[in-house]
Amino acid sequence: MASRTDTTAAADDPADSVATALSSASFVRLLARADGDGLAAAGLLARALRSVDVPFQVRVDATGADAPAGGDDLLVGVGSADANADVTVAPEGTPASLRAYRVAAEIEDGAAGPDPVLALAGVVADGATPASAAGRLVETAEAAGAIARRPGVAVPVDDVVDGLAHSTLLRSPLSGDRDAAATALSSLSLPDAGTDADAETHRAIASRVALAVAGDDDATPRAADAVERVLRPYATPEGPAATLGGFADVLTAVARERPGTGVALALGHGGADAALDAWREHGRAVHSALDAATTTRHDGAFVVGVADEASGTPGRLATIARLVRDFRSPEPLVVAVGDGVAATSARESGAADAAATLAAEFPAADAGWTGGPTRALVGIDPDTPVSELVAAIRGRSA
Description:
inorganic pyrophosphatase (n-terminal core); 3 domains; six-stranded mixed sheet; Exonuclease RecJ; globular; Diaminopimelate Epimerase, Chain A, domain 1; alpha/beta
């Protein structure tokens, strides 16, 4: 099997050896983590391979249950490490999309170059701040007119009521409730459909959103910081979404709801309307599940019990865990427990360790675990009591 493993964690390490491995392969299978960063990274690599006529397949992986086999094919783990992968594009502490952008630039040497908007959307989806994680790329995109900073909120559509009701970048009393969002903004002069708001209106919208989060009785102090990633977005005039943050939100939602549509979007094959439909579906489902969820606090862990239709959907559980971590949890680790699957989300680290512990203690018949320090998914025995899950996690950290 052709292989050249990228085991480096630093984003600034040379990418030429990875590019050589991919561009010299007879067929490349890209196995992407099911989130916006993984999907964006896979899209960047696939577009680069297409430019040099290397055939490829992109697959979005939710729980690391298995990996596609393919004889002499090159298997690339994108966004998370896979034991069967020949090449891994998942640098620790750095968005996979940023690493993929550098690898793609090496593959496309002399061509127009990778799409900076797709790469930056992946950076945002990973939870990083573009200006600090990818400052040069931001400068490149701004100079090309691909992005432009403006006041307001990061939603993928011009209709801000629609955007706030379905966004999974924040959790507030406006989330999942279009009527509540419309009421909160009712005193503002919102533009007609197809027309962008002026700067003053954008600032007023951002202020209402910040106040909604700050005034939420269920919010934790961390929520005030978490909402900052939604404010003062980068507009994307020619992009598939209205803002960079909105594009990131769509990429994560579509990776988890309709992976095929997400792959088409990441490859530049269109499908923006279908992706927005998936984003709305994801937002409605996640916020509805959060409304009905039960929560229990333990020393070091905050457990969210999900019992509705989202309980068996790994991607929705992952989004729920992240939102609770950022806006609801007083503990550093969140465990969202569904039917035979759990999502872990940590502020700094511990998510992967918790998932690995649950996989070892309460293994599922047809699913493993996948993830990293701040987020992970794990298949578990569906008959396991939550108290035993918590005991195992606490025992790991004792």
